[in-house]
Amino acid sequence: MSNLLDKTTQLWVKWTGKKIDPEQDEWLLGPIGDSDKVGDQFISRLEKDGNLDRYSNQKGFGLLESIDELGLSTEEKDRLNPIVADFYEHTYNYHFEFWSEWTGIFRPFGWLLAMLFSRRLQQLNLPLSPMDASKGLNSNIIKLKQGDKTKWTIWYRTLKANQRVIYSGVYTTCTPNVNPKPHLKVVFPLPNGNASVVMTKTVENDGSLLLSSDGQRFGENGFYFTLIDRNGNYWAKYVKAMHEWIRVYVDKEGVLQADHTLNFYGFRFLNLHYKMWPKPGLN
């Protein structure tokens, strides 16, 4: 049954998406998952195949090596709250609390997604109830390096209550063909392919960072599925209906927070909220 579901999803990508050239569309490529389960298994494969060294949860590890990877202008860097920049450059130095809320009629969809795909694959396994996250989150930053250069940065998160993997994303940047400026890209390995969220960035007047995947056509920021078929051909599907926004900010009390919202065909289906604070002795 599980194999049939995965094959059906992959056929959907081929039938409704487009064949891509891995050289011309290199910005879309990223790590892929194993055929039956994702979890953290793809990390060992990336490490072995690339002859890379693995480092985990070291002081100062961040989702980005430098905020400069986002291609901010001098004016944007001056406006960005330095605490927000520090979070992206030194993510491991922060504790997390988070809350989740599926809205309205979409809650059954969340349950179905979890039953059919997320829990089996150990990927994108978002909590169905705020109580699921009540005991907190384990946040692991894993870097695969060749010498001093980081090749891949993985944010691997599990629930403290049951150690269930909820998120295994590879953080990088890309430069889409139609908008040749740096975009943040998060890759979620899946069987024989991956899902990617490509996000533009805006530094708001209050110093917050807004990341958006609200494009309207292939090549713009948004949500993509990519697939490698058994003949080695590459396929990609742009999911125009899926949009998300992440706003990272410092509130009036000086607390670092993030609001993460996801929409489907213009309807908000999931709200996530994070509160982050420095770990003692690390900042």
Notes on the structure:
It contains five helices and 14 strands. By secondary structure, it is an alpha+beta fold. The chain has one domain. Strands 1, 2, 3, 4, 5, 6, 7, 8, 9, 10, 11, 12, 13 and 14 form a 14-stranded antiparallel β-sheet that branches. A hairpin with a 2-residue loop joins strand 13 (256-264) and strand 14. Mean pLDDT is 85; it is low at 110-121.
Summarize the structure.
The protein is an alpha+beta fold and about 280 residues long. The chain has helices at about 1-15, 40-50, 75-80, 80-90, 105-120; strands at about 20, 55, 95-100, 135-145, 150-160, 165-175, 185-190, 195-205, 210, 220-230, 235-240, 240-250, 255-265, 265-280. Strands 1, 2, 3, 4, 5, 6, 7, 8, 9, 10, 11, 12, 13 and 14 form a 14-stranded antiparallel β-sheet that branches.
Considering the chains and any ligands shown, give keywords for the structure.
283 residues, alpha+beta, 5 helices, 14-stranded antiparallel beta sheet
Low-confidence stretches: 110-121
Could you spell the SSE succession in H and E letters?
Answer: HEHEHHEHEEEEEEEEEEE
Instruction: Report strand %.
Output: 35-45%
Please outline the major beta sheet.
14 strands, antiparallel
Helix-strand layout with pairing:
Elements: H1 2-16, E1 18-20, H2 41-49, E2 53-56, H3 74-79, H4 82-89, E3 94-102, H5 107-121, E4 137-146, E5 149-159, E6 165-174, E7 183-190, E8 193-203, E9 209-212, E10 222-228, E11 234-239, E12 242-250, E13 256-264, E14 267-278
Antiparallel strand pairs: 1-11, 2-4, 3-14, 4-5, 5-6, 6-7, 7-8, 8-9, 8-10, 9-12, 10-11, 12-13, 13-14
